[in-house]
Structures are given as structure tokens and as C-alpha cells.
Design a protein that fits this description.
It comes from Quercus rubra. With 456 residues, the chain is α/β, with parallel strands linked by helices. The protein is built from eleven helices and 21 strands.
């Protein structure tokens, strides 16, 4: 009996339950793999041989290492040919089923024939592709030009292009279903190409633009009625730069820029989440920050990061809807905190994140004459990241603990390595008077998380 029972257990262990799944479910599982891996499943059994041909996504990644020496490129040519033949073979053998995603990552030393690129993208368009992701690592060769047929793909919902690629838009563009557009460190033939691309995408919801030095752009004029998320990363130092934004439906704004003086924002009062990383050091820095904040009266979540000091002696508009505020600043650059607390009566979560723990260490906290209203009735969570146990930092913590009447969590993330000093001050902080009987003082080992806005 025991032998018979063991035999039944062994038979159960040998059952291939995955292969018994329906084709639709297997294809869905394989859609998360690179195409090279999905093709390799044909070796598992005869059951798997036709499955890869019906997978609704194609992900070609040329990651083979190549020699950088241009004098002897015979091996590189062989690798280029192998990758090209693999892609062409897959497209030839694949069943004529709709294609949800087409992803192409090209090695910087892969010199692709433009005809092949056009053929592959045309195949995707012919199979009603919904997402196209093109990535080419930056090289010294000529950038790849997107085929004209791409700009009239009615099924396309997401287009992400990254790297050594140039956008040369035809005079007529029709992308009626494009919802997400990512233009990451690419080139444009001229500014008109960029504007045509936006105008030809009437239902666009998300726009992500990362600039780089040789993109052939100076001014970005973005006027779009349906845009809900805009992420702009500009690390190009050019005094001629201008960004004009008119987006009445915009909800999420993320700006990372060294030239915030070049911004002109219209009709963006519906923004509820703003992340502004301004690293510039020019003389009008304060004015630029205030100009940006003044167009965000309805913001609910605000993150500010800057290097230059913003003193307390200026006026801020009221942020009646602000619920979450995060300051990411260097030492002694957070004097603006008091102004923000006084302008945000309904603030619930406050995070002060010091970007460094080095000096100088002048006082950054000035106790106000009147307790901000958010402390009296709204503030529930306060996090201090890279807390250094300096006197003015302790004074801020003590003030908030004492005056925040509904505080639930005071989270302290340590920014120093002297554990003896830390231990003594922890005990001292436990004795600080508290305005809220339910407040919990927590000492964090990891920083509070941050949600990327374009993943929403």
C-alpha cells in the first residue's frame, strides 16, 4: 500500500499543469518575456511549438556585445546579420493575430538598414499595434528616422522613442487613438515636427519629454485640450529656451529644469499633483519659483526640490486644497517651509527631505508668532528625512510635536552615523511635549516612498 501511495504522489508531481492551460492564457504569460525567450519555449514539447506565434507582443532586444574597434568589424557584422535575420524570421512565421506591443532595443554598434526598420514597423502597424517602444543607445552614427507610416497609425495608443532617433513628421499626421507619447533624448528635424506631432494627436493624455543638447529645439509651445499628465526634463543650458504650456485638463505636472525662468504656463489651474525640481542658480530664482507656484491654486500634492535658498520674506498664494507637501532641499535651504505651512490650512502630510547632511548648518527654522492653522486641525503625518540632530532641527520637531493637535505619525529618518549621539537624542525626543495624545514617534531605517506620476 505504501509503495502504491508513493507511486501516485510521483505521478502527481510529473503532471505538466502549465501545458494544460489554454492558448490564450499561455500567450498572455509569454507576452511578458522577450521574444527570444518565447521562441525558446518551442523546445519544451510539441504542445509549445505553435504557442509563441500567437503571442500578442514582440520584444526584440539586441544586447549582444560588440567590438568598439571600427578597424575590425567582421564579428560585428555577423552579429548584426544574426539579429536582423532573427527579427525577419519571427515576423515571417508569426500568426496574423493582432499585436498589442512592439518593442525594439538596438545595440549602439548595430548599424541597421533603414529599410529593415521601416519594414518591421510597417508589420506592426499592419497588425493593429497598440504600443510601440523604440530605444537606440546613443552612437556616433546617423540617427534613425521614423517611417512616415508611423504617423498615421490609427490603432496606436502608446509611442515611446528613446535615444539616437530623429522625428521628421510629414505635413499630415493622424494619430486619433494615441494616449501616451514619450520623446526621450531624441532629435527633431525642427520645432515644427514637434508641434505637428502634438497637433496630430487630438486625444493625448500623457506627454513625457526629456531634452538633450543636440535636439534642435529652443522653444516648446504645448497647447493641448486633453493632456492630463506632462513630464518635462530639461538639462540643457540655453538662455533662449522657452516653454509655453496651455493645458486646461492637466492634472499631473513634473518639471525638472535648470532654466525655470523660461516657463510661461496658462490655463493650468486644474493641476492636482506637481513635482518641480528646479536646480538653477540664477539671480531671479525666487521669482521663478513664485511664478510657478502662483498658477497652482488647486494643487493637492506638491513636491519642491531646489538648491538655492528661498527666504521667508515673500508672499505665497493660498493652497486651500494642498494635502501633501514634500520639500527636497539642501542644508539650510528650507526657510520657505514656514510660508508654505501658513498658506496650506488643510495640509495633512509634510515631508522634509534634506538632500545632503554636510554644512553649512545655520538655523533654518524660525518659530512663527502664530501657530499655522494646519497644525491646529489637519496635519496627521510629518516625516524628516536625513535628520541630523542639529539644534534648529530639534526645535522644529519639538514645535510640531507640541502644536500639531491631530498628529498621528512623526517619522524620523537618521542622517548621521554617530549611534551614541542618536541614542541619547532619541530619549530626549521621547520627552518632548505632544499636542496629540495619539501621536507615534517612529525612527525610520528607510526613506518614505515616492510614486512616479506617469505610472498612475
Amino acid at each position: 500500500m505504501a509503495t502504491e501511495s508513493n507511486s501516485e504522489v510521483e505521478k502527481c508531481d510529473e503532471v505538466d499543469r502549465i501545458s494544460d492551460l489554454p492558448d490564450s492564457l499561455l500567450c498572455h504569460i509569454l507576452s511578458f518575456l522577450q521574444t527570444k525567450q518565447t521562441v525558446a519555449t518551442t523546445t519544451l514539447s510539441t504542445r509549445w511549438k505553435p504557442v509563441w506565434t500567437m503571442v500578442p507582443s514582440l520584444d526584440f532586444q539586441d544586447t549582444a556585445e560588440r567590438q568598439q574597434n571600427q578597424g575590425d568589424n567582421h564579428g560585428n557584422n555577423d552579429l548584426n546579420m544574426m539579429f536582423t535575420q532573427f527579427v525577419c524570421r519571427v515576423l515571417a512565421l508569426r500568426e496574423p493575430v493582432p499585436l498589442k506591443k512592439f518593442r525594439l532595443l538596438l545595440n549602439p554598434y548595430y548599424f541597421i538598414d533603414p529599410t529593415h526598420l521601416h519594414t518591421w514597423i510597417s508589420y506592426a502597424i499592419g497588425h493593429h499595434v497598440e504600443e510601440i517602444h523604440l530605444f537606440r543607445v546613443r552612437t556616433r552614427s546617423q540617427p534613425l528616422e521614423l517611417p512616415p507610416s508611423l504617423f498615421s497609425c490609427k490603432s496606436l495608443k502608446t509611442l515611446m522613442v528613446h535615444g539616437e532617433i530623429i522625428v521628421n513628421c510629414p505635413s499630415s499626421i493622424h494619430l486619433p487613438n494615441l494616449l501616451c507619447l514619450g520623446l526621450l533624448r531624441i532629435k527633431y528635424t525642427n520645432e515644427e515636427s514637434f508641434h505637428r506631432l502634438l497637433n496630430g494627436s487630438p486625444n493625448l493624455l500623457k506627454l513625457i519629454v526629456w531634452r538633450y543638447q543636440q535636439d534642435n529645439m529652443i522653444s516648446f509651445n504645448i497647447s493641448h485640450p486633453t493632456l492630463r499628465l506632462f513630464f518635462f526634463d530639461n538639462q540643457v543650458q540655453d538662455p533662449r529656451f522657452r516653454l509655453e504650456l496651455n493645458a486646461p485638463s492637466l492634472k499631473h505636472l513634473l518639471l525638472w529644469d535648470r532654466n525655470c525662468h523660461g516657463y510661461l504656463l496658462h490655463n493650468v489651474t486644474n493641476i492636482i499633483q506637481a513635482n518641480m525640481f528646479n536646480l538653477c542658480e540664477h539671480g531671479n530664482f525666487c521669482h521663478c519659483i513664485l511664478k510657478l507656484l502662483s498658477v497652482l491654486p488647486n494643487v493637492q500634492s506638491l513636491t519642491l526640490r531646489y538648491n538655492k535658498s528661498l527666504g521667508p520674506g515673500f508672499y505665497l498664494p493660498m493652497f486651500n486644497n494642498l494635502r501633501s507637501l514634500q520639500l527636497k532641499v539642501k542644508c539650510c535651504k528650507w526657510l520657505i517651509l514656514l510660508n508654505l505651512l501658513q498658506s496650506a490650512h488643510n495640509l495633512e502630510t509634510l515631508t522634509l527631505n534634506k538632500m545632503d547632511v554636510e554644512g553649512p548648518h545655520e538655523s533654518c527654522w524660525i518659530e512663527p508668532l502664530q501657530v499655522p492653522k494646519c497644525l491646529e486641525s489637519r496635519l496627521q503625518n510629518f516625516y524628516f528625512v536625513r535628520f541630523s540632530f542639529l539644534d534648529h532641527e530639534l526645535e522644529l520637531v519639538k514645535y510640531i510635536l507640541k502644536n500639531a493637535q491631530v498628529l498621528k505619525t512623526m517619522g524620523i529618518h537618521n542622517g548621521v552615523s554617530n549611534w551614541e549621539e542618536e541614542f541619547l537624542i532619541r530619549w530626549e525626543m521621547l520627552d518632548f511635549p505632544r499636542g496629540s495624545l495619539t501621536c507615534q514617534l517612529e525612527f525610520l531605517t528607510v526613506e518614505p516612498g515616492w510614486i512616479c506620476p506617469w505610472d498612475r
